[in-house]
Specification:
- This protein is an alpha+beta fold and 309 residues long.
- It folds into two domains: 159 residues; 90 residues, no CATH class.
- 22% of the residues lie in helices and 34% in strands.
- A hairpin with a 4-residue loop joins strand 3 and strand 4.
């Protein structure tokens, strides 16, 4: 299962009343540029010391502009607040420090945004690590600041996670199934007071082989049961994921979501965090592919829900 991946976001600006889409580099009578608005947003939040929302914290740092490419790199320090935690040396259990409720233990997540000089769409690549991502927090915060910075323009910011069903169907026709993972919340037997925890049961093809392709359709239709593919009966899972691959790049589908979220593995087969040069090379490749495709100029957001969970 991919550990370090990229989530792609489509950005567009829509007029409230006419439902028309402006050019991302020049919209409204004030001639706003989404590139400049992003730099202003990231700089502003960094000067403020970051932002906390529902026990999630993010801090933009290390902003680097590439004006000739109309690209901006930003690194987000992200973490959770809300409870007192002790930092321990796991080799001997020694307490090394304390994290108080307002504090957060953070780790960096990189991002790349490109706002073309022409057209009605821009794209952002956001790094995700395991279950750690800033997608929802960042979306809500930037939309709020966008409204503030463009007050009176009549435009709103759409941020659409690339979870397009048709695109997934096209991809799955070419993809191979590499892994199925069932997850269950379990409580220690005989101890109802114990905190529940996740247990995972995975199925992979033997070395050099892939899993049966019909399993993909059965999984998406929620017809692939653990008892069909596991040697033990775990009952009904609380969550099912499949990992599919095409052209050396893996994507994870979380079964049960209205539309699965695209995640692009950065370094296939590696559990190490990719170096920045690798992250940005993959991010540019993915954004280039979107801009050269059918949605390079036409926003998918036309008529679609743009809120992120």
């Amino acid at each position: 299962m991919p550990v370090h991946s990229i989530v792609l976001l489509e950005l567009s600006v829509e007029h409230f009343y006419s439902s028309t889409f402006g050019h991302v580099a020049n919209f409204s009578e004030q001639q706003y540029d989404l590139y400049d608005l992003w730099v202003r947003f990231a700089t502003e939040v960094e000067v403020e010391g970051g932002n906390t929302h529902r026990e999630r914290y993010l801090l933009p740092q290390n902003l680097r502009e590439h004006a000739s490419l109309r690209e901006v790199q930003v690194e987000f320090e992200a973490g959770r607040t809300g409870e007192r935690q002790t930092v321990r040396d796991t080799s001997d259990g020694h307490a090394k420090g304390t994290i108080d409720p307002p504090d957060a233990a953070t780790a960096p997540l990189r991002s790349l945004i490109r706002v073309p000089g022409n057209g009605r769409v821009a794209y952002m690549a956001l790094e995700a690590t395991g279950h750690r991502s800033v997608t929802g927090h960042l979306s809500r915060l930037w939309k709020s600041r966008f409204r503030k910075h463009t007050s009176g323009s009549g435009f709103k910011l759409n941020i659409l996670n690339l979870a397009d069903g048709a695109a997934w169907n096209d991809f799955l026709e070419q993809a191979e199934l590499h892994e199925v993972v069932f997850r269950k919340w379990v409580t220690r037997q005989g101890d109802r007071s114990a905190a529940p925890r996740w247990e995972e049961y995975g199925v992979k093809g033997a070395e050099g082989t892939i899993l049966p392709k019909p399993w993909v359709g059965r999984a998406l239709g929620r017809r692939l049961r653990p008892r069909d593919v596991l040697s033990v009966d775990i009952g009904d899972p609380d969550e099912t994921k499949i990992v599919v691959e095409s052209d050396g790049r893996s994507r994870t589908i979380r079964i049960g979501q209205a539309l699965p979220t695209f995640t692009y593995e950065i370094e296939p087969g590696s559990e190490q965090r990719p170096v920045s040069s690798r992250f940005y090379a993959v991010a540019r490749e993915l954004i280039d592919g979107q801009l050269a495709g059918p949605y390079g100029e036409i926003p998918r957001a036309m008529g679609e829900e743009d809120e992120l969970e």
